[in-house]
């Protein structure tokens, strides 16, 4: 999953990101957490996150759920995109990483995969992940990348589906994280499956969510890659276009784990989170972080208490 995230003025190319949530705090020591020494000390489970709000929120859920079971945890948040953090998990520098099953499969495990449904995606991940890694139980919570347009563009071109963009995409500017340009679950797939070539792609960096939403709202850009749980969609009456060709596969939240770094107690703690986490939960928590400006750690703490997973 892309996941923006993590302002930028039009005409300025702003690099690196995931795709659609507002940025948040990083490692407590500041800077790039991967510039610091790997690992978290003897017996410590290192929980990471990508550089966007939802991933950091999920990282807090995982870290606090582990701590509630007496597991020693070190947090390494705000690392970067999957292209940055995946190798860190594979090497064991990161023990637990919040992931999205479809994005993980198509971006890092098997770029040629045709899996679409959650069952297909999970089956392929279990078969194809490196021997050092595994996914735990996936949650019902899902957050997909999307092609989302503003209401005026949807009305002008009668848009309900991505397929409706055929013939008009050449008149539109689409915004998103820089990696959206080269991913199969991005512009590459939109061209191969729908024949779409946009007038312009406007990349946004990891802290440009507010700018992206503003430019989409005022029609400076007409379309954007937004996460489907992004509260700005409903707030601004944006239209998420249907995806009949399944460019964007199942994107269930799932813990990606370095096998030898997490014991059965830790696995059970994370599986318990997955068993209770829903898409509606994610949307509600993100609204508290993005709109009410609450700290992700406090939002995660409250959810875990309500779910009976922490005291």
Strand portion, in percent? 5-15%
Shape: globular
- What is the topology, as strand order, of the major beta sheet? 7-6-8-5-9
Flag low-confidence runs.
Answer: 1-32, 34-40
Q: How confident overall, as mean pLDDT?
A: 87
Helix content, binned percent: 25-40%
**N to C succession of SSEs:** EHEHEHHEEHEHEHEHEEHHH
Rg from C-alpha positions? Answer: 19 Å
Provide a count of the helices: 11
DSSP E strands, number: 10
**Biggest beta sheet attributes:** 5 strands, mixed
| Separation, N- and C-terminal Cα atoms | 31 Å
Structural class: alpha/beta
Description:
The chain is an alpha/beta fold and 311 residues long. The chain is 37% helix and 13% strand. It has helices at 53-68, 82-91, 101-109, 118-128, 151-157, 184-194, 209-217, 231-235, 264-276, 279-290, 296-306; strands spanning 45-48, 73-76, 96-100, 133-135, 147-149, 173-177, 200-204, 223-225, 239-240, 253-258. It has a five-stranded mixed beta sheet with strand order 7-6-8-5-9. Strands 3-10-4 form a three-stranded antiparallel beta sheet, with helices on both faces. Helix 1 crosses helix 11, helix 3 (101-109) packs across helix 4 and helix 10 runs antiparallel to helix 11 (296-306). The longest helix is centred in the first third of the chain and has 16 residues, at 53-68. The radius of gyration is 19 Å and the shape is globular. The protein starts with 44 loop residues before the first strand and ends in a 5-residue tail after the last helix. 52% of the residues are buried. Mean pLDDT is 87; it is low at 1-32 and 34-40.
């Amino acid at each position: 999953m892309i996941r923006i995230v993590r302002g930028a003025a039009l005409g300025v190319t702003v690099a690196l990101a995931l795709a659609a949530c507002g940025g948040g705090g990083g490692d407590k020591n500041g800077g790039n957490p991967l510039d610091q020494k790997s690992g978290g000390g003897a017996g410590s489970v290192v929980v990471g996150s990508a550089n966007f709000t939802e991933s950091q929120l999920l990282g807090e859920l995982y870290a606090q759920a582990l701590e509630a079971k007496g597991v020693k945890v070190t947090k390494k948040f705000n690392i970067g995109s999957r292209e940055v953090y995946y190798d860190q998990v594979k090497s064991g520098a990161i023990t637990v990483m919040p992931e999205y099953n479809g994005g993980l499969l198509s971006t890092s495990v098997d770029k040629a995969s045709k899996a679409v449904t959650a069952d297909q995606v999970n089956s392929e991940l279990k078969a194809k992940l490196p021997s050092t890694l595994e996914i735990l139980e996936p949650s019902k919570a899902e957050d997909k990348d999307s092609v989302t347009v503003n209401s005026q563009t949807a009305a002008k071109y009668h848009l309900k589906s991505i397929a409706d963009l055929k013939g008009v995409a050449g008149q539109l500017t689409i915004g998103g994280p820089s990696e959206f340009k080269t991913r199969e679950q991005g512009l590459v797939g939109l061209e191969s499956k729908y024949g779409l070539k946009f007038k312009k792609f406007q990349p946004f960096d990891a802290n440009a969510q507010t700018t992206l939403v503003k430019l989409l709202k005022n029609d400076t850009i007409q379309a954007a890659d937004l996460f489907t749980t992004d509260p700005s969609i409903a707030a601004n009456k944006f239209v998420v276009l249907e995806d009949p060709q399944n460019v964007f596969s199942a994107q269930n939240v799932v813990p990606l784990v370095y096998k030898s770094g997490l014991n059965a107690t830790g696995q059970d703690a994370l599986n318990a989170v997955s068993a209770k986490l829903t898409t509606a939960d994610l949307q509600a928590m993100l609204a508290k972080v993005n709109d009410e400006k609450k700290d992700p750690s406090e939002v995660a703490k409250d959810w875990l208490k309500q779910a009976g997973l922490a005291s």
